[in-house]
Amino acid sequence: MDKKTVRQDNAGMSLIEIIAAVSIFMVLALILFRGFVSSSRLNKKSGTYLSATTLAQNIMEEMKAKTFAQTALAFNYPVNPITKENRFRFLQEDSSEATDTSAVITKELLKTEDTYKKARLYEEAGNDADKVTASILSIDKGKTYTFLPRTKGSNASKYYFSMEGIKNQNNTFDALVEFDGSKSSGYKKNTSGKKAGKNDYLMPNISKLNTEKNAFLIMDQDWDQNAMETMLKEQLAEAQKKYWEKNHAGVSEPAELNYEDVYANTKRILEIKVTKEAGVITAKARYTLWTYPYQNPDNPYETMTICPCHGKNLGKSQSDSGWIPGCFCTYVSAYTAFYSSEAGNDLEGIYVFYYPNYKSTSSVNPLDEIVVDNTDNLKFELYVTKQIPMTENTHEKNPPTSTQEANYRMSLTIEENPTAKGNTNWNTNLGLYRAQVQLRSNLDYDISNLTQSSRPKLGQMKLVYKEITDGGFTKKASGNSAKTVLDFNSLDVKEAYDRIYTVKVSVYKAGAAGRNFPEEDKILTLDGSKEN
Fold first, then answer.
1. Where are the alpha helices (DSSP H) in 252-384?
2. Is pTM, for the whole model, over 0.85?
3. Domain limits of the chain?
4. Strand extents, DSSP E, 278-379
5. How far apart are CA 66 and CA 440, in angstroms?
6. Is 182 exposed, middle or buried (0-12, 13-18, 19+ CB in 10 A)?
7. CA-angle at 357, arms to 259 and 208, nearest 5°
8. What confidence tens digit (pLDDT) does each residue in 196-206 have?
């Protein structure tokens, strides 16, 4: 082998070979880079979609956890002015959460064709309640409020809310929440006029209620049989004593009064007192049975009017100094607590269930009376529900007649202390003032007809909203004025599985709210339904 040959064999790569190698490398690198970029974009898109899905689920769970009125309140007044916390749990300031709430804007919207505009709040409408278009009326920026259901116009039974600038897992979104309770949503309510529509209130499903925040008082058909039987025995003893003391010629010896007859003519007063002390809310109740007016026209001794107190113990209790001893026509139970909250817990609702006494037909002085003392001014919903009577032996439903329902009257009084909350002149404009208690009841429906859709409306309540100050009674509102103050609404007796709203939560790219939520900005939509 000569030297020239050796030099050629040990020579390096030619320029052409280098260029070819570099070209191949660049092509491969470009393919790999494009794959990396595509993968990165796909991962980012997947991450954005996952983050948006999590946000939609959080919003939907929040909607299901609140009553509709609470939902509307949270969108219109997101920060509780008392606790300073955000009313949306997933938006509450918490360093452990991935959601930044510092720039989140919530609104209620009105929709006209495909355009959304902000609903007007009380303070934005020149303090004119008639110009408020939001579904929440509050004159103190969310401390107290009343829900204004939409029943007319293009937005009837439809509600729209927005959230802007929600930061979640390094992403920013806007959200549109839509509630639809119209006929097209699949929910219908048949009224006595056979009109279809939506009802904003539902007869509560007790099994689903949180017993830590709701109180239940269920009165038996006979409030206290033992007390009544004792009263009848004491009456008999007094009657026989008087019978033998006086000339009883032509009058038969008195017998024990008929339990059913006396009880049917007994005035029953249920008193409920709600208080808050050291952060603990307590609800307690007592009842009065007043039999004094009962008389048997066939025997002057078989009457409760021979009672030594002559009926004057009504409105008193045995511990009062003015209680007349020896009284057997009046029984007053002791106060018994039926609810006590955990320290710091709010009371959401009190549910009172009772059986009407259909002998109570006087609108001036009815035999059935319920008084709720809320002079500590606690905020809660009060449900007063009359139940269909049961037969004594079989315990089956024994519906009243339509005549009994039409003639039935009862008295319901709610006592509060508006002056203590700075509302001294609350009675001068009852269209704006709202009580702390919100009243829900089926007392305006005829329950003699078991077919719920054809039950006519009635007027059975002697309703009074009364102010009680430290110095005593000062002012009151009655009838329709009391209904306005108490935000009264009748209960819908449907089963709880009937939905009231369809709910749609749509998550959009940031800034979509300012662009009127265009379809191309939508990331995803989550559908559901709301039952109360």
1. 259-264
2. no
3. 62-188+502-530
4. 280-290, 330-332, 336-340, 349-354, 368-373
5. 17
6. middle
7. 120
8. 333 444 455 56
Burial state string for 72-85 with b = 16 or more CB within 10 A and e = fewer than 16: bbbbbbbbeeeeee
What is the Cα–Cα distance from 74 to 119, expressed in whole angstroms? Answer: 14
> 3-state class of 111 per DSSP?
strand
Q: For the range 232-241, what are the long-range contacts, defined as Cβ-Cβ under 8 Å and sequence gap of 24 or more?
A: 232/256, 232/257, 232/259, 232/262, 234/328, 235/304, 235/306, 235/307, 235/328, 235/329, 238/306, 238/307, 238/308, 238/328, 239/301, 239/302, 239/303, 239/306, 240/301
Nearest to 48 by CA among 167, 162, 164: 167
Quote the distance between the C-alpha of residue 491 and its chain's center. 11
Measure the CA–CA gap between 376 and 421, rounded to whole angstroms: 10
CB-hemisphere CA count at 13 Å for 86? 17
Output the furthest CA–CA distance in the chain (Å, rounded): 165
Q: Is the pLDDT of residue 499 over 80?
A: no
User: What does each C-alpha distance from 125 to 71, 79, 112, 134 come to in angstroms?
Assistant: 21, 20, 19, 10
pLDDT of residue 516: 93
Residue 390 phi/psi, 5-degree rounding, is -115, 150
Contact 317, 332 (CB under 8 A): yes
Q: Which residues pair with 299 in a beta bridge?
A: none
